Amino acid sequence: MDTYCSQPAGAEAYIEDRKDSILTKGKSKGNISCSSDSLAGAVSQRACVYCGARVVLNPVTDAVHLVHGPIGCAAFTWDIRGSLSSGSEMYRNSFSTDMKERDIIFGGEQKLAACIDEIVAKYAPPAVFVYSTCVVGVIGDDIISVCKEASLRHNIDVIPVESSGFKSGNKIVGYRAAADALLKLITPKDGVHIEPTRKLNFLGEYNLGGEKWVVERYLKEIGIEINVAFTGDSTVAALKQAPGACLNLVQCTGSMHYVAMKLEQTFGTPYMDVNFFGAENTTESLRKIADFYGDEDIKRRTEALIERESSHVRPVIEKYRKKLAGKRAAIYVGGAFKAAAIIRQLKELDVEIVLTGTQTGKKEEYENLSGMLSEGTVIIDDANPAELERFLREKDVDFMAGGVKERFLAYKLGVGFVDHNHDRKDCLAGFEGAVKFAREVHTTACSPVWKHLKNTSVRDVRL
């Protein structure tokens, strides 16, 4: 990989400080610059630290999520995940201390304590997560002390989530804040013993569109139970049983590797990376899990499930492959695990990937992505809209797979868009999810509207 230097006619130069974050496979060997704070003024596609924490914790269905800060922070992240629940709907509420100028001048600790008291009196939740925001970190409100006192006062878990955004320009810091909060919740209190089981925990699964339920159905068929998911369709009580699992599966590596490592250090629970996006990934993950248990009956049932489901998927994928061969795709998503899954699915469909990037990828993850890509593919970390626009034009992209912030940019450039955002309600996991994804790619990339747009000047209009 090497720095991407060529520019289309009339394109602005990339920001000098960003040049090491934009590489092209095949030029020479080199490491991409990543995992650092976003460059000030670059209008990064990353979300803020608080948002990173909120997307991890929000699917805990029966907990209250209280945002200590101005009302805009709570409004911005209301119902931020497309997570579904089989029980409580408490997580769909958005609570805020609604800090005003007076609170910022004189401090908001009393207001926070009063809000917690009111919430507990009205809703009696089993736990309250209290998120700090930028302004709270600036004025120095001690949310740790307020939460500790409230926890003692109400005899429930009131857990501070230290997610003040000014600490960093990196969403991963928010993931770490959420992880620390989860570890506080699930660590057994003195005198509490959690019985070991043969169940597994599913980390980094947020039940978007019911995806956890799909994987749960597969595992149940082969004879394995999910103990608790972190955090899709989870409850406070279920999360507290997490130390009893015999294995931790990690799907979203960016948000949950830290938790998995801590659980292994503290409770001795091993972990493995899995990926249930795409038929091939699902097949490999199920076999890895079956091998861990070492039970011949589980292995036999696993192979039977894979053969049955694959026989349904193969002809559908082949049908779409014939129609999509030669299409050019761009990928820009939150984490590297998702990027890898999409790359693999698109390659199954004979689609050429010409641009890929993530918000939170690590060097070793980018090396893995590079190994999956063809020479000349642009790889970009923590992109800004100007960079994405430039490469979407230069690479003559037919469609883009990404999140909510990329959708509008793609459409304005006359480029098709495939939604893989965390607020989606469509299930894309498992074998049936692979068919849905292929169908969406085909519907988007082969729509006749793009042919007509390409014959106009729409793609030449500057944003």
Automatic annotation (TrEMBL):
GO MF terms held by the record: nitrogenase activity
GO biological process, one term: protein-containing complex assembly
Keywords (A to Z) from UniProt: Nitrogen fixation
Pathway assignment: Cofactor biosynthesis; Fe-Mo cofactor biosynthesis
Gene3D superfamilies the record matches: Nitrogenase MoFe cofactor biosynthesis protein NifE, C-terminal, Nitrogenase molybdenum iron protein domain
InterPro entries attached to this UniProt entry: Nase/OxRdtase_comp1 (IPR000510), Nase_comp1_CS (IPR000318), NifE (IPR005973), NifE-like (IPR049939)
SUPFAM superfamilies for the chain: Helical backbone' metal receptor
Segments forming domain Nitrogenase/oxidoreductase component: 48-444
NCBIfam families recorded: nifE (TIGR01283)
Record family assignment: Belongs to the NifD/NifK/NifE/NifN family.
Free-text function comment from the UniProt entry: This protein may play a role in the biosynthesis of the prosthetic group of nitrogenase (FeMo cofactor).
PANTHER family linked to this entry: NITROGENASE IRON-MOLYBDENUM COFACTOR BIOSYNTHESIS PROTEIN NIFE
The name this protein goes by in its record: Nitrogenase iron-molybdenum cofactor biosynthesis protein NifE
Organism: Methanooceanicella nereidis
Name of the coding gene: nifE
